[in-house]
Structure of Band 7 domain-containing protein:
Amino acid sequence: MPFSLMVCFKVVQEYERAVIFRLGRLLSGGAKGPGIFFILPCIDAYARVDLRTRTYDIPPQEVLTKDSVTVSVDAVVYYRVSNATVSIANVENAHHSTRLLAQTTLRNIMGQRPLHEILSERESISQHMKALLDEATDSWGINVERVEIKDVRLPVQLQRAMAAEAEAAREARAKVIAAEGEQKASRALREASEVIGDSPAALQLRYLQTLNTISAEKNSTIVFPLPIDMLTYFMKAKEASKHSEK
């Protein structure tokens, strides 16, 4: 009697369910548990189902993108059994089937998108893949909770080409910015020359300000710009003396 009781009574944990078959037919009432339940020896057979979330690390998949670029993509899928009875009765191995489907779905989705979308739209790709997997595994009693794209590996030659392209784009932007700065500086200089031309004394003050700036830097040599008006005065005086001698 004690031995028969040990065989008849079973216990499943809080995170487990027991699917019972009596004479080959699924017992009504759904899965049993958690806790203790009763089976008939030699008549009933049962299977334990773990309801905890499982993690599947999809191996790197070699994919040819829509624009004919070969990339290696890997991802992570988080899923759990939502219906223990269906996961046992409708599919031979729900976990293995979900993992194979995740691999093929990842390859199919990546093959339908160009490279720039794969690199920039990982979140939308993950959501799309989750929706497809969840819909396909619903009849197996599986609920896909989350899908994350881990890494997208590019060929070395493509990485070098993209780096060269990005560097060329940065240099082009730098040249444009420098040209715009030169244009603005030339306009400012033209306006300054007009202001200085209206007042000759302003040019002399600018000379003195330049000298003050140079002397503050502790330079050993200071070049003093001589006003053109002064040179013109001496040249006229020299020409006048020559005419007087003649």
The chain has eight helices and eight strands.
